[in-house]
Amino acid sequence: MTQKLPSVANAVTAAVRAGKIEDQDKGARNLAERYATLIDRAEAVWQELEDLRGDPDQDDETIYKKIARLQAAVAAQQVASDLGPKLLQALDRLGLTPMARTGPTKGTQSNAKDDVPTGDSPADKLAQLRARKKAEQVRRTS
């Protein structure tokens, strides 16, 4: 039997409670909580599969019910895996995540010549650092 891992869902819930989540960020928060629950559930699904494999004396009806539960769990994982990132991208484009509101395109001015953000946000500073590095590489190859 494997060691029980700490709950990702509990950690995410604690982080969300500790942070200040705006009403407009509830979609991203709910998505994070759903992902965390699915991650935790993956361990239980794996254990259920191992139990199914390890008990050859189960009757067919019991096996079919367990397989149906496993199929449903896997289907939920697939839906979240396929649609979750698309939902997050849509929330970003609508400006409904903190990252969308603090990224280099929001609330900062841009240097039109190089299209490098001039703000002080972490994303802007990273873009500025990348631009400097690229400029150094261009100078070295010229």
What do you see in this structure?
The protein has 142 residues and is mainly α. It folds into 2 domains: 8-102, no CATH class; 110-141, no CATH class. 70% of the residues lie in helices and 3% in strands. The protein is built from 5 helices and 2 strands; from the N terminus they run H-H-H-H-E-E-H. The protein has helices at 8-18, 26-54, 60-93, 98-102, 122-141; strands at residues 110-111, 116-117. Strands 1-2 form a two-stranded antiparallel ribbon. Helix 2 (26-54) runs antiparallel to helix 3. The N and C termini lie far apart (61 Å).
Strand residue percentage: under 5%
Average residue-wise pLDDT: 80
**Total of DSSP H or I helical runs spanning 4+ residues:** 5
**Total beta-strand segments:** 2
N-to-C series of helices and strands: HHHHEEH
| Low-pLDDT runs | 106-112
Determine the oligomeric state from the structure: single chain
Query: Cα distance, first to last residue?
Result: 61 Å
- Largest sheet, spatial ordering of strands: 1-2
Overall tally of domains? 2
Radius of gyration: 23 Å
Proportion in helices: 55-70%
User: What structural class do the secondary elements suggest?
Assistant: mainly alpha
Give the overall silhouette.
elongated
Sheet of most strands: 2 strands, antiparallel
